[in-house]
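Wed. Picked up where I left off yesterday with Pyridoxamine 5'-phosphate oxidase N-terminal domain-containing protein. The coffee machine is broken again, so keeping this brief.
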Amino acid sequence: MSEAVAQLNETLLSMLQSETFVLLNTVDAETGGPTSTAISWLYAVSPSTVRLAIDHRSRLVNNMKVNPLITITVFGEGTVYAINGSAAVRQDPLEDVPFKMCCFDVEIQAVRNALFYGAQLDSAPRYAKVYDGRAAEKLDGQVFAAMKKA
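Structure written out below (tokens, as returned):
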């Protein structure tokens, strides 16, 4: 691991301004244990703030309201980054999306290279949306537009 910095570098900022697969790690509000969930509705507002949109049916919404400390794990630039921060509700519900979502802003407290010493990623994980491609594209467009406006 490398030393932490308190904001995103230019490459991470650019990467997180388009659709990106990450892991969102929260503290479960019921058990107090760690949780990890893959998400793609996130957007870097600035080098010090990342915005997330979460479906209200997800436990993540309550987890972050009860304990705002989170980690976002990003796979990219040949490495793995851990972005630690504190989440606060930005807009609830998120406007102009077809179902109830909560929008959070994450104030970045630390960004670290989290890949073990002597390793490098050959490629970032890739995913495919397995439902109606046009519907997915439309929904993603609505969510990202609403997040940017929030």
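Quick read: The domain at 10-149 is CATH 2.30.110.10 (Pnp Oxidase; Chain A).
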